[in-house]
Design brief:
seven-stranded mixed sheet; 11 strands; mainly beta
Length: 129
């Protein structure tokens, strides 16, 4: 049974940095592509970033490109999202997700929530102005 547990959220001032983590268990982590999504109150869940199984390719939403970095450590079964130069509009609950589709980043389906069948419970990130 796939289990994803996010951590590292919190309150930070605009311009600050934060790193959130997602620890995976219950499956062979290195065989799944991983992604981060976020959802603000009253808004739909939106794609943030994705990474291939090996970590050799990444994909970002335009709104975070150049500020956020997704990475993974397959030895630790963990995926990370380093967030720099945070803005108030980055405030949301951040979720990690897993897909067994190794082509998700190539085809672009990695941007769609429907691509993923395993989700964490989320971690709150709040950016104050």
């Amino acid at each position: 049974q796939v289990q994803l547990v996010e951590s590292g959220g919190g309150l930070v001032q605009a311009g600050g940095s934060l790193r959130v983590s997602c620890a995976a268990s219950g499956y062979r982590f290195s065989t799944y592509a991983m992604a981060w999504f976020r959802q603000a109150p009253g808004k739909e869940r939106e794609f943030v970033a994705a990474i291939t199984r090996s970590g050799d390719r990444t994909l970002y939403a335009d709104s975070v490109k150049g500020r956020f970095t997704i990475s993974r450590d397959n030895a630790k079964n963990t995926v990370y999202l380093q967030m720099n130069n945070l803005k108030p509009e980055d405030t949301a609950v951040y979720y990690c997700a897993a897909t067994a589709n190794s082509w998700a980043l190539v085809t672009g389906t990695a941007r769609r929530p429907s691509e993923y069948n395993s989700w964490g419970q989320g971690t709150q990130v709040t950016v104050s102005s």
